[in-house]
From TrEMBL:
Keywords, comma-separated and alphabetical: Methyltransferase, Restriction system, Transferase
Keyword Nuclease attributed: no
One of the GO biological process terms: DNA restriction-modification system
Segments forming domain DNA methylase adenine-specific: 1-146
UniProt protein name: Putative type I restriction enzyme HindVIIP M protein
GO molecular function: DNA binding; N-methyltransferase activity; site-specific DNA-methyltransferase (adenine-specific) activity
Taxon lineage: unclassified sequences, metagenomes, ecological metagenomes
Gene3D superfamilies in alphabetical order: Vaccinia Virus protein VP39
EC number: 2.1.1.72
Organism: groundwater metagenome
């Protein structure tokens, strides 16, 4: 996705040296491939290895753009250990599904004028189990959602 982002910036008259890529990946093999892929293309980056929920390597980062494709419907994210996390501004995500934890993680890392784009499982748009509907409603009522 980062490589395609660079191509998008170039195709629309932007300069690739105006962007810097931050990221975190929990799978070590994927992390290494990502770093290699960015390096051979000369894309400036700070990609860390580790669990973004339990060891956020970019805790203070506020980004202008967030682009993500998190794991869908992750049931083993150990959400019960994060019940008081500052990122859950719109509601406590269900312990058995990380989709709304990811969304709120992305929002947490946005600058005041930042924009996020991400893909999630289709069910994320209509699920109402374990507080998901309430979180979605709170985000919509806060006027932070542009498109679904």
């Amino acid at each position: 996705m980062f490589v395609q982002s660079e191509k998008f910036v170039e195709a629309h008259g932007g300069k690739i040296w105006d962007i810097f890529v931050y990221g975190q990946e929990s799978n070590q093999t994927t992390w290494k491939l990502c770093k290699m892929n960015l390096a051979i293309r000369g894309i400036d980056s700070n990609i860390k290895w580790g669990d973004a929920f339990h060891n956020d390597q970019h805790n203070d980062l506020k980004a202008d753009f967030v682009l993500a494709n998190p794991p869908f419907n992750d049931s083993d994210w150990k959400g019960e250990l994060l019940s008081d996390d500052v990122r859950w501004k719109y509601g406590l995500p269900p312990k058995g599904n990380a989709n709304f934890a990811w969304i709120q993680h992305f929002i947490h890392h946005l600058s005041p004028s930042g924009v996020a784009g991400f893909v999630l499982a289709n069910g994320s748009m209509s699920s109402n189990t374990s507080n998901e509907g309430e979180i979605r409603k709170n985000m919509i009522n806060s006027d932070i959602v542009d498109r679904l």
